[in-house]
Design goal:
It catalyses: (S)-malate + NAD(+) = oxaloacetate + NADH + H(+). The protein is an alpha/beta fold. It has two domains: 6-155, 3-Layer(aba) Sandwich (Rossmann fold); 157-322, Lactate dehydrogenase/glycoside hydrolase, family 4, C-terminal (L-2-Hydroxyisocaproate Dehydrogenase, Chain A, domain 2), CATH 3.90.110.10. The chain has eleven helices and 14 strands. The strands form four sheets. It has a six-stranded parallel beta sheet. α4 packs parallel to α5 (134-143). Bound molecules: nicotinamide-adenine-dinucleotide and (2S)-2-hydroxybutanedioic acid.
Length: 326
């Protein structure tokens, strides 16, 4: 990898997730230990002072790879010439809300930022949307950046993927990184589908190793889908360090590759698997040489079809709700 500085925009820089994310990026966890980085931090005017405080702390870590930091409330300044963008800034939900309840509060943010991305970013910049509802926000962002490649706009379902891996590994008595070909399909919402059908451990089918289909359907799938809510109930605030970690995993694998294994990324649908074109839906991808390829031809059985249709139905409803912004 070239040693020219990589420019990385991060929105919502004064928030909870960024309090973990920024330090990991500056440490080299995304682009690697030999790649200098510059951070371009965006937040609202009233949060600028808080961002300055975070930047003082970044300075006090003396990260050798961190070459420059910009603080701004102007999206175009934040996205100027970026190689990567983490779109975190937006309102989180609180107890009693679903992520889709944030649609009206957050959708406009992504319309404005899409236009700025279109004007200012490098055409090969890699973008991840974390702010909820992440899938539909990513669709709004891409729709408002017509000259920016839609394939480079993605949304995060990696937290759900990681959550499921740990529960599966515990149940099977294996290590998380021994599980291959696992995927979370669809929306980052209660309808997401954590699909173990094709998962393997050292060439053996994971469903056979665990041998408990009712645990899969009645415990694993709903617990992964409700994990964000469980964390809000326990912590009084939504997940932060684990969300930052998942964003790092997503971007790291996109840049460096996923070693031939499947990872879950929400990408703009090409119509495969019965997912209408243009919806940002979690699918299995393999990352290699700085890009991702959808895994094609995965068999979808009756139960999986029902689960996929349910989450795709919800994404379609969300798209209708924001049609004025697309
Ligand atoms: P937070 O409230 O701690 O921080 C959000 C930050 O965004 C604040 O500093 C706020 O000022 C800023 N912001 C708001 N509007 C902005 C705008 N227009 N431009 C730039 N910055 C803006 O929230 P958080 O806990 O860091 O969570 C951020 C988002 O990430 C929420 O929407 C949350 O639901 C979502 N999230 C997603 C996942 C996922 O898996 N996709 C996981 C965890 C959290
Ligand atoms: C999560 O899954 O932890 C985040 O999306 C935050 C939330 O609102 O659940």
């Amino acid at each position: 990898m070239s040693n020219q500085v990589k420019r990385i925009a991060v929105t919502g820089a004064a928030g909870q997730i960024c309090y973990s994310l920024l330090f990991r990026i500056a440490n080299g966890d995304v682009f690697g230990p030999d790649q200098p980085v510059a951070l371009q931090l965006l937040d609202l005017p009233q949060a600028q002072n808080a961002v300055r405080g975070v930047v003082m702390e970044l300075e006090d870590c003396a990260f050798p790879l961190l070459r420059d930091v910009t603080i701004t409330d102007d999206p175009k300044t934040a996205f100027r010439d970026i190689d990567a963008g983490f779109f975190v800034g937006s309102r989180p939900r609180s107890k009693g809300m679903e992520r889709r309840d944030l649609l009206s509060a957050n959708a406009e943010i992504f319309r404005v930022q899409g236009q700025a991305l279109n004007e200012a970013a490098k055409r090969d910049a890699k973008v991840i949307v974390v702010g909820n509802p992440a899938n539909t926000n990513a669709m709004i962002l891409a729709a408002n950046a017509p000259d920016f490649p839609t394939a480079n706009v993605t949304a995060m379902v990696r937290l759900d993927h990681n959550r499921a891996l740990t529960q599966l590994a515990k149940k099977a008595g294996v290590k998380v990184d021994e599980i291959k070909k696992f995927v979370v399909w669809g929306n980052h919402s209660p309808t997401m589908f954590a699909d173990w059908t094709h998962a393997e451990v050292n060439g053996r089918k994971l469903p056979e190793i665990i041998g408990d289909d009712s645990w899969y359907r009645e415990t694993l799938i709903p617990e992964v889908a409700r994990r964000g809510t469980a964390i809000i109930e326990a912590r009084g605030a939504s997940s932060a360090a684990s969300a930052a970690n998942a964003a790092i995993d997503h971007m790291h694998d996109w840049i460096h590759g996923s070693n031939g294994d499947w990872v879950s990324m929400a990408v703009s649908s090409d119509g495969s698997y019965g997912i209408p074109e243009g919806l940002m839906a979690g699918v299995p991808v393999i990352c290699k040489d700085g890009s991702y390829e959808r895994v094609t031809g995965v068999p979808v059985d009756g139960f999986a079809r029902e689960m996929l249709d349910r989450t795709v139905g919800e994404l379609t409803e969300e798209r209708e709700a924001v049609s004025a912004l697309l």
